[in-house]
């Protein structure tokens, strides 16, 4: 048998681990991870979220303990999500800009104890609204401009508490510009905005809504979150948020939207953030627990795919686990 004469043998560069490492194009590192955490009122509480194994709701005291671990593992950024009790919810989300509210107290304490840790706060009405919607409800509609006024107050109260980045996740029109102007007017020129720019009306948020008891009480979020079928519309949203002053741009969810991450990466020079959401987390955990997949490898493969698609940062419930694996 005569062997063919192949000029190109791509396998040459795959022969050894050393060669593979040399030509690796994408690297997942703890530097690029943001760890989301759930906080609630009370003391000595660490409750596992049933649809998100190994994710917990913490009272502030235990959250601080957890953060010591997080910092020790080399993670540098967290995103905070509050569980608000029913009696504090109202249609205007008044509690959301209470200077002594749960988020504001939590941020202040965290920045005292861990000044180097980047704290990112979620700006949206849904945890504070009895309707579970991201805006003020009137006659079954979600009001845009009235909601933006509340979002501005919320963002300012987060900045005052010491947040490094505020992250509007509501998808109201014009909120990035309104928040930027208000922050600047109050002297918070160095507080950045991580814009949830392309946020889809996705079924992958289910476990998160369990965690915060924040599922919409009527209808769905399709009048503000984007149609899952659209791609150009993501660029339209991204372009507006850049114009309005966003510092970082987020695509959410991530895994079913890798094409969007790539399009946005090619479109802008701003950092692109992928939100590896709760449903993506739950799927891997569920299959892992049953022994149907090699969980650690699937986690690394999934997050690497997001970086390969063009994400600079990844917001992921796996952050701590990845930090442990990479250590
Ligand atoms: C709310 C918000 C949601 C998530 C982050 N911020 C839920 C929603 O829009 O209904 C989902 C995150 C996840 O699923 O991990 N503004």
TrEMBL record:
Which terms are listed as keywords in the entry? Answer: Heme biosynthesis, Lyase, Magnesium, Metal-binding, Porphyrin biosynthesis
The pathway that the record names for this protein is: Porphyrin-containing compound metabolism; protoporphyrin-IX biosynthesis; coproporphyrinogen-III from 5-aminolevulinate: step 1/4
Q: Output the superkingdom of the source species.
A: Bacteria
Presence of keyword Magnesium: yes
Stored Pfam families: ALAD (PF00490)
Principal EC category:
lyase
Q: What is this protein called?
A: Delta-aminolevulinic acid dehydratase
């Amino acid at each position: 048998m005569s062997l063919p004469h192949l000029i190109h043998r791509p396998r040459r560069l795959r022969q050894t681990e050393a060669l593979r490492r040399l030509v690796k194009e994408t690297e997942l590192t703890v530097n690029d991870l943001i760890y989301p955490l759930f906080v609630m009122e009370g003391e000595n509480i660490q409750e596992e979220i049933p649809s998100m194994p190994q994710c917990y709701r913490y009272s502030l005291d235990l959250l601080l303990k957890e953060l010591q671990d997080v910092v020790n593992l080399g993670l540098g950024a967290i995103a905070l999500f509050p569980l608000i009790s029913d009696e504090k919810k109202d249609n205007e989300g008044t509690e959301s800009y209470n200077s002594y509210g749960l988020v504001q107290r939590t941020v202040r304490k965290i920045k005292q104890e861990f000044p180097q840790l980047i704290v990112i706060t979620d700006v949206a009405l849904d945890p504070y609204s009895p309707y579970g919607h991201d805006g003020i409800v009137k006659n079954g509609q979600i009001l845009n401009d009235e909601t933006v006024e509340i979002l501005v107050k919320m963002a300012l109260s987060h900045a005052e508490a010491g947040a490094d980045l505020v992250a509007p996740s509501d998808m109201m029109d014009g909120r990035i510009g309104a928040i930027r102007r208000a922050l600047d007017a109050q002297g918070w020129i160095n507080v950045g905005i991580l814009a949830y720019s392309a946020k889809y009306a996705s079924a992958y948020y289910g476990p998160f809504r369990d965690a915060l008891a924040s599922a919409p009480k009527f209808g769905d979020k399709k009048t503000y979150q984007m149609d899952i079928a659209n791609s150009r519309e993501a660029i339209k949203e991204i372009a507006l948020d850049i114009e309005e002053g966003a510092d970082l741009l987020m695509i959410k969810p991530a895994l079913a939207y890798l094409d969007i991450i790539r399009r946005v990466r090619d479109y802008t020079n701003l950092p692109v953030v992928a939100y590896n959401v709760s449903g993506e987390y739950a799927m891997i955990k569920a299959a892992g627990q049953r022994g149907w997949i090699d969980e650690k490898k699937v986690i690394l493969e999934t997050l690497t795919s997001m970086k390969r698609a063009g994400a600079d940062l990844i917001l992921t419930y796996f952050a701590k686990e990845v930090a442990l694996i990479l250590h």
